[in-house]
Write a structure and sequence with these properties.
Blueprint lengths: L1 H11 L1 E4 L5 H23 L14 E3 L7 H7 L2 H11 L3 E11 L25 H10 L9 E6 L10 E3 L24 E2 L7 E5 L4 E3 L8 E10 L12 H10 L2 H6 L6
Antiparallel strand pairs: 1-7, 2-3, 3-9, 4-7, 4-9, 5-6, 5-8
């Protein structure tokens, strides 16, 4: 099962892992999500932007999200997802941004076809011998990836629920930019990525992607975690500072502190 996940992530640029969130953890995540969405709804409706990710009338975004509830920090280092990501990125992985994202029912696409990174693989020459040795032990793919993102689905996402959509394999077309289409459906060979509540979509940031119109009667709700390599530039809103940084330093695991960019393990 794991070998197939790694193969698809490496070759296709994305994979869906069902039941990443289950039981009490899923219930806590869902409840915290709904609470934050409700608390920020009026600001969003008035046009206040909590960050990027297409924030505006067609996307309700809270960015960053990890400071809003402890469960969002727990998901940052969720073993099932993070073990997959780490064996594709390498030992020096770090979070660069995170967000809550709601694509309301009946809204148009909030972005066109694009990619989030210009390169798909990490330059091993940037690692010291210790990291290269760790990669030889842990790496599940031939070459480490540069940027991996994880979407946790808080509700079912179907073909009409503004699904995340990709062109499989396009993450390795680093010498090409995705073409522009007025109608997003015109992109050749694209796939609408669906999944049940609790699933994780794990994908390479270089893949050509977008979110389609949400023509459903329900919103698309998900959490986003974006990982790259320690020392890379974090999005300024997501840099851990002040009292929150002090609390994280004292209360969270050493690996969590690495993910937050506080210190390398």
């Amino acid at each position: 099962m794991l070998s197939e996940i790694f193969r698809k992530l490496d070759e296709q640029g994305y994979v869906v892992v069902e039941k990443a969130l289950e039981g009490d953890l899923f219930a806590q995540t869902r409840d915290a999500f709904y609470r934050v969405e409700q608390q920020t709804h009026d600001d969003w409706a008035r046009g206040f932007s909590y960050g990027n990710y297409g924030a505006g009338p067609d996307a309700h975004v809270v960015y960053p999200i990890i400071g809003w509830d402890e469960v969002f920090l727990d998901l940052l280092e969720l073993p099932l997802a993070i073990d997959i990501v780490r064996r594709v990125l390498g030992p020096d992985m770090m979070m660069i941004d995170n967000a809550l994202h709601v694509k309301p029912a009946g809204t148009k696409a909030h972005t066109g076809w694009h990619r989030d990174a210009g390169i798909w693989e990490h330059d091993i020459a940037k690692w010291d011998e210790s990291d290269r040795a760790s990669w030889r032990q842990m790496g599940a793919v031939d070459r480490p990836h540069h940027k991996i993102k994880v979407f946790f689905l808080v509700e079912d996402v179907g073909l009409d629920t503004g699904p995340f959509s990709v062109v499989p394999g396009s993450h390795k077309l680093t010498d090409q930019l995705p073409p522009t289409f007025e109608n997003l459906e015109d992109m050749p060979d694209h796939v609408r990525v669906t999944g049940p509540a609790g699933a994780a979509i794990i994908w390479n940031g270089c893949i050509w992607h977008t979110a389609m119109d949400n023509t459903d009667v329900r919103a698309r709700r998900m959490l986003c975690y974006n990982y790259t390599h320690f020392g890379d530039l974090q999005h300024k809103e997501c840099v851990v500072e002040g009292e929150f940084r002090r609390r994280m330093t004292n209360e969270r695991s050493s690996f969590c502190k690495q993910l937050l960019g506080i210190e390398r393990t």
